[in-house]
């Protein structure tokens, strides 16, 4: 399994913004300078968010379970975009009647089981939380307005932008 994961992820991953490599040229364009600044901000975010570890965790699930889910959302408690990985067994997309296989679902549900606690007299329960529809609420408790969910970066298997 570790060998498969190593081949899947390769030796390293880098965030690269097209045009950033020209920012240090003698006649750098404003677009190249902006691309380099964006690349640096994304790399700082990736370091703060522990992106390589999150990628390893999600891809390990993908190797073992056949799928993995990233949820890209605003984290108001941290004041930045967060990228939690979700166990694919908790992820339920709402599919259209005749979806295009290349399209991402516009709604998802997350569900998980809460175990029984005999000491407190609590039975086992199943919790389900629908993700917000486009343009509605998101964030911690989904209390902030979000843009329309959309796929990002084209990374497999299901990379989400819910906010």
What does this structure look like?
By secondary structure, the protein is of the alpha+beta class. It has two domains: 1-48, no CATH class; 68-163, no CATH class. The chain contains three helices and nine strands; from the N terminus they run αααβββββββββ. Helix 1 (2-9) crosses helix 3 (51-65). This is Immunity protein 35 domain-containing protein. It comes from Streptomyces hiroshimensis.
What general outline do the C-alpha atoms trace?
Answer: elongated
How many domains is the backbone divided into?
Answer: 2
**Please, how many helices?**
3
Q: What's the SSE pattern?
A: HHHEEEEEEEEE
Number of strands: 9
How can the largest sheet be summarized? Answer: 4 strands, mixed
Radius of gyration, whole Å: 19 Å
Distance between the termini: 33 Å
Tell me roughly what share of residues is in helical segments: 25-40%
Structural class: alpha+beta
Q: Approximately how much beta-strand content do the residues carry?
A: 15-25%
* Uncertain residue segments: 135-163
Summarize model confidence as the mean pLDDT: 75
């Amino acid at each position: 399994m570790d060998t498969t994961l190593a081949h899947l992820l390769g030796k390293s991953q880098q965030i690269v913004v097209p045009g950033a490599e020209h920012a240090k040229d003698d006649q750098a364009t404003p677009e190249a300078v902006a691309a380099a600044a964006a690349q640096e901000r994304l790399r700082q975010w990736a370091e703060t968010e522990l992106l390589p570890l999150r990628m390893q965790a999600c891809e390990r699930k993908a190797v073992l379970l056949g799928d993995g889910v990233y949820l890209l959302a605003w984290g108001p408690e941290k004041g930045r975009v967060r990228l939690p990985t979700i166990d694919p067994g908790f992820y339920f997309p709402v599919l259209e009647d005749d979806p295009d296989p290349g399209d991402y679902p516009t709604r998802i549900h997350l569900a998980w089981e809460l175990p029984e606690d005999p000491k407190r007299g609590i039975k086992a329960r199943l919790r389900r939380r629908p993700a917000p529809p486009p343009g509605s609420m998101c964030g911690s408790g989904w209390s902030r307005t979000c843009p329309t969910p959309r796929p990002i970066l084209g990374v497999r298997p299901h990379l989400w932008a819910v906010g």
